[in-house]
From TrEMBL:
It comes from Zophobas morio. It comes from the Eukaryota. It holds the Pfam family Fibrinogen_C. One of its GO terms (cellular component) is extracellular space. This is Fibrinogen C-terminal domain-containing protein. Residues 177-338, 437-652 form the Fibrinogen C-terminal domain. InterPro entries: Fibrinogen-like_C, Fibrinogen_a/b/g_C_1, Fibrinogen_a/b/g_C_dom, Fibrinogen_C-term_domain.
Length: 656
């Protein structure tokens, strides 16, 4: 018989048949009195049915076990497929991340190359602009110099009144005088680039002070210093003291002074140029290769040699002579025999450049004087009238030309000023651009530099800040935010000072709350605290997390992740605001921690550390406890430490 698997309906039918109301095998009253045979047959039928039920249950259990095995196998297959799919997904994600990083690196390289090319192009443009600017300025300078030939030495007084023609030289000279740096002589004035023959202040090596002299920067190579100038009716018959100190005006006739001539010529080789102009306008000159005047102790002895020129050698015979004095039996001049005073009609212009010399004839002095007097009597009146008329006409023409030049120069000066304003504006734009490019390439912290003191620009900081870096301890890359080691710097300040910082990087200092915020407020940072006691024992406190908020957040400080040897005193101050004596932001409801302990710090209720406290030495009395620079877990709150440093650096997050 195929018993198969009995379903629920068959079981219900069997149950109703066996135990139902229709038939009860245990009740004999339901059977006919004479039906024992039927009862036995029925019992056998029930036994066979029981065997059928048992067999069906065994088959059902076997089928269920088979289904369970199949289900388990399917689950294992599903797990393997799931694991394989996850591996494929992770592989795809890794490939995608690598592709993204590769593209970002290529874009970064492209940006760097583009930035380098732009900087090179900017440099080339800057150089071209500088060359163009220098060329335009040179052209303008040359145009101004085109008007200088008309400004002769005869009209120095008029030129002196027209200040605008030498305003450039006067400004440059004024700036140089403000520095206290004067040229040695007119030759050095020329070497410094000046080309206008006018007055300058010089200071010879041996001179006690600077003096104003008249320089000729064009005649015969330029660089000549006037020591005598005589071109009009005047007397040089002064006493020896006047000849010693000098007299006259540089804009007219003058004598530079024996002391000044000695300082100019007494200590190095000098040349002498004597220029003479007679009444008919004829000009001659005398040049000597060597010229020297001694000091007062040497009676201003003159040494002269090496003649050349067109006027004749009248001074070589007077070499090694002393300066004569009127009230002593000699006149005021260098002479071995006698001295004559030349009349003003004979020499309408008598200019001596770089030192002084006076013509001296080899004939008898008295005959020379007589000849000169006769010449004066015969020619002076006629020559004077002709010269006055000629000079009047020349002056009128010169004034007219100078008026034209003045208006023209004023116009050109206005044009130059306008051009200079344009140049200045372009320079400002260029400087700002270069500054922006420079700041963009600046390191953000000490981890990106290789020097102990360096300018950095943290992200979001408005300007560049110079900081002190520690490049060796604990892996280097640390930026100092506090440094104390000798008590030379007071730390008793209010919020405004702590906000901006104080002290010097070479000594004790506080970097400033704003700077600390820019360093730590926008990326994860570490904190390193170094402490040293008066026995030289050094300990460290290292924190994995350190941040200072902005001024709007009251410079709130968060710190965590302690490790090292100093003991953890600073975690107590986590999530506290910076307080000062006048600004109480601590969490102590009974008073002000800053006022109680006389310092500014991140106070809670109140502190276990105070690195801005008073700088004392070692153990302190009870009234100073907790007010000193201390770290409670290192030597306690009644011991003032010798050194304390706080340093930060960006934290490198470990790879997962």
């Amino acid at each position: 018989m195929d018993y198969g698997i009995v379903n629920e309906e068959a079981w219900e039918e069997i149950e109703s048949f066996i135990v139902g109301e229709r038939f009860d095998v245990s009740s004999t009253t339901q059977l006919p009195p004479d039906s024992l045979r039927i009862q036995e047959a029925l019992t056998k039928q029930i036994n066979r049915f029981q065997e059928y039920v048992n067999t069906s249950l065994e088959a059902l259990e076997a089928a269920n076990m088979k289904q369970l095995e199949e289900l388990k196998h399917r689950l294992e297959t599903l797990d393997s497929v799931k694991t394989l799919n996850l591996k494929k997904i992770f592989h795809s994600l890794g490939t995608l991340v690598s592709t993204i990083y590769l593209k970002l690196d290529r874009r970064r390289q492209t940006f760097e190359s583009l930035k380098t090319a732009q900087l090179k192009q900017l440099t080339l443009r800057t150089e071209a602009f500088e060359r163009t600017k220098d060329l335009k300025l040179l052209q303008f300078k040359q145009r101004l110099e085109e008007f200088e030939p008309v400004l002769s030495l005869k009209f120095q007084k008029l030129i002196h009144r027209l200040k605008f023609l030498k305003a450039k030289n006067e400004i440059l000279l004024y700036l140089k005088q403000q520095r206290g740096n004067f040229p040695l002589d007119c030759e050095e004035v020329k070497r410094e680039g000046y080309n206008l023959s006018t007055t300058y202040r010089i200071k010879a090596n041996s001179a006690p002070k600077a003096i104003e002299v008249l320089c000729d920067l064009k005649k015969k190579g330029g660089g000549w210093t006037y020591i005598l100038r005589w071109f009009h009716v005047s007397q040089f018959g002064h006493g020896f003291d006047e000849y010693k100190k000098g007299f006259g005006e540089l804009s007219g006739e003058f004598w530079l002074g024996l002391d000044n001539i000695h300082h100019l010529t007494g200590y190095e080789d000098n040349e002498l140029l004597v220029e003479l102009v007679v009444g008919d306008g004829t000009s001659v000159f005398t040049h000597y290769d060597r010229f020297r005047v001694g000091n007062e102790d040497d009676d201003y002895t003159i040494t002269v040699s090496g003649y050349s020129g067109t006027a004749g050698d009248s001074s070589s015979s007077e070499s090694n002579t002393k300066f004569s004095r009127q009230k002593n039996d000699l006149d005021n001049w260098w002479s071995g025999r006698c001295v004559v005073e030349l009349g003003f009609a004979f020499l309408l212009q008598f200019e001596v450049v770089s030192t002084s010399q006076r013509p001296h004839d080899s004939v008898d002095c008295e005959q020379t004087l007589m000849k000169q007097s006769e010449y004066f009597q015969e020619n002076f009146n006629a020559k004077l009238k002709v010269l006055e008329a000629a000079n009047t006409l020349q002056l009128e023409r010169l004034v007219h030309r100078l008026e034209i030049l003045s208006s023209t120069n004023n116009l050109k000066l206005e044009q130059l000023l306008h051009l200079l304003k344009i140049v200045d504006s372009k320079n400002d734009l260029l400087s700002n651009y270069v500054k922006q490019q420079t700041e963009a390439n600046m390191p953000r912290n000490c981890k990106e530099v290789k020097e102990r003191s360096y300018p950095i620009k943290p992200d979001f900081a408005p300007k560049v800040t110079r900081v002190r870096c520690e490049l060796e301890k604990q892996g280097g890359g640390w930026t100092y935010i506090l440094n104390r080691f000798d008590g030379s710097q007071s730390f008793d300040f209010d919020m405004d000072v702590y906000k901006n910082g104080f002290g010097t990087l070479s000594g004790e200092f506080w970097l400033g709350l704003d700077n600390i915020h820019y360093l730590t407020g926008y990326e994860a940072n570490e904190l390193l605290v170094e402490l040293v006691d008066w026995n030289g024992t050094s300990v460290f406190a290292h924190y994995d997390r350190f941040r200072v908020g902005s001024g709007d957040e009251d410079y709130i400080m968060t710190v965590s992740g302690y490790k090292s040897t100093a003991g953890d005193c600073f975690s107590y101050n986590d999530n506290t605001k910076f307080s000062t004596k006048k600004i109480d932001l601590d969490q102590w409801s009974s008073g002000s921690c800053a006022q109680k302990h006389g310092a500014s710090w991140w106070f809670k209720k109140c502190h276990n550390s105070l690195l801005t406290g008073k700088y004392l030495k070692g153990d302190v009395p009870k009234e100073q406890q907790s007010k000193i620079m201390h770290w409670s877990t290192f030597r306690g709150n009644s011991y003032s430490l010798k050194e304390a440093r706080m340093m930060v650096r960006p934290r490198i997050e470990p790879n997962n």
